[in-house]
Amino acid sequence: MHVVAIDGPAGSGKSSVSKSAAARLYFGYLDTGAAYRALTWAALKANLDAEKLTESWLQEYFDYSISLDPNDYWVKVAGLDLTEKIRETYIAESVSAYARQPLVRKFMLETTKSLVNQCNLAGIIVEGRDITTVVLPDAQTRILLTASPEVRLERRSKELTSGADALNQVTQRDKSDSQIVDFMHPAPGVTLIDSTHMDFDETVAKVIATITSDRR
Ligand code: DC
Fold this sequence. Notes:
alpha/beta, Rossmann fold, five-stranded parallel beta sheet, 8 strands, binds 2'-deoxycytidine-5'-monophosphate
């Protein structure tokens, strides 16, 4: 199976670009940020602060599932569809605190690897922050997708209801997340795609060309 790892900051377009490239290649698609968001939702609901999380709670009570189909994307916890819910501002504001916990990162690494193993298609695109470096450093294709802060802010604000949300989601969250893992600079062997001056279709085409050139 051709494993593709794509990292990048908020608003780089990596989710929509990865989803579209996966659909065109008949590959699976895995959004790893969704698991951090779903975990944040579940922990907040259980009144569990980030520092209070335990391995047994993660293993026993966080019953997470996600679709690997780029044409039918959904996220569930204990059978409850949270696809829309996890995009809300209160989740974005709290997610970094949970993502910072080493226990959580270890759990997510294992979850991601096991989801990749479940995919029985010709390939899978896995996107996040630490996929090219920590989770799947041996992936056949590794890409860092970036864009200038101004462009990312503009793209994010189109998805959100208020400008304040956009500003908080892009600048604050990137600042906080980049203390956990460096997703602003490509690690050795990782292809940098800067989409600042590319439109959506051009970016998808560039990602597909990079994947195709790595095909053995
Ligand atoms: O991509 P996203 O905005 O849905 O990610 C939500 C949060 O999860 C983000 O603030 C950082 C964290 N995250 C992470 O730490 N590592 C990943 N591989 C993916 C996401």
